[in-house]
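Dear colleague,

Following up on yesterday's call, I've attached the two folding results inline so they're easy to grep. Please treat them as preliminary; we haven't cross-checked anything against experimental data yet. The first protein's sequence and structure tokens come first.
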Amino acid sequence: MSEKARISIAIDGPAGAGKSTIAKLISKTLNILYLDTGAMYRTVALKAIREGVDTSNREQMSKLVEDIDIKVVYSDDIQHIFLDGKDVTELIRTPEVSIGASNVATVPAVRLKMVELQREVAKQNSVVMDGRDIGTYVLPDATLKFFLTASIEARAIRRYNELLSKGMTQMTLEDVKKDIEYRDKNDSSRDFAPLSKAQDAIEIDTTDLTIEQVVNKIMEYVKEYVY
């Protein structure tokens, strides 16, 4: 990447659309930071689960997040999430935490706390962020915005294969599909910063595209800004 002004790239979309995978590859291609915002919400959910707090209880979650200790640390260009001083990067990828993350993301106090952290990272670095509301709320002035979509069947298969690759065999493909349907409804219907496509976002349907094809499509738009 040439020496130019700091840039920010927002990649939004529903669960299983390929946001994180694509965002990581774009960040490596451009040699800029990748911030997995979903991991931050997962960490809040993990904290709630550990403390026996109902992730759908707004009052309890608002109190829990007041003094939560979450830090994003980069080691060898890999993002690690620390909760209360301990690395929980791998612990936040369970189905239980996924549901909890979708629940806590509907709580305004939680979103405000996480957005504060996310914007601070973007102020200091060129960054690629993926999530549900990056282009519409977190970084409304992002250099480029993309919205990735895919059929629910394709998204379920991707997530199911991801779980299998990590040895998580307790869920069936149908379970994963129901989980995604729940998260889609939750993310799109919340009253604060819901999942939606920014008016100036470039939409890409990834259903029948390979990871490489999606990355190439995005890079076509990015090149004029960074080279």
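Below is the second protein, in the same order (sequence, then structure):
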Amino acid sequence: MINTFKLRSLGMALALVGIFSSGAAHAAGDEAEDAIRDRLEQSIPGLEVQDVSVSRVDGLYEVTTNNPEMIYATENGEYFLVGDLYQVSEQGLSNVTEQGRAEARAKQMAKVDHDDMISFSPEGEVKAEIFVFTDIDCPYCRKLHQDVPRLNELGIQVNYLGYPRSGPGTPSFKKYVSVWCSEDSRAAMDKAKNGGSVPPTSCDNPVEEQFRLGGEVGVTGTPAIVLEDGNMIRGYVPADRLAQGLGLL
């Protein structure tokens, strides 16, 4: 997180901010991307522009950066706004920015090797998969784990990724590593989620990488449930309600 660039609320998103008083010639295509990148990075210390693309709104470009909030900028980079873009249509209110986040999140999650996850699969047909960023010591993560048999019964495969909220090097982080490195990681997960002690062990593991991935896809707490389409459910949801949302009940 960039201390000098704190992005807060939708109210802030509605405030159009000028970062230069002098005008600039209109740019197009690659020129617009270069103009936006140069102006923002020069004006905001620590900001790194990762991608610039045309938005659904004429005259505005979506700017993805190393900050989780989306930036929308004019094509010459002179003005920008921060936050989520909403669309009002006959179907109601929709969050355009979150739709884009979900698409990007789905692509990121598709790159994760299933062998790096701790998965609990149905005995029969897998009708849906969920990807759960979890913390061994999180009470609601433990509550969700109690629902895993029911989720499996409903045809939902549960894939766990490590997100020990206290971060690398902490007891919770080491506990997750021990679970992942156990000879039977599923049994170790069951034991740890039920409050049992798992023998400390270590090995080459993906936990720190998954922790970083969680930050990249917008995890702010646990459990964080990512669906196959990239949409994220933040927090615990009972098994049957989750299945209903997935169209399985």
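For the second protein, one point worth flagging: Confidence is low (pLDDT under 50) at residues 1-28.

Best wishes,
A.L.
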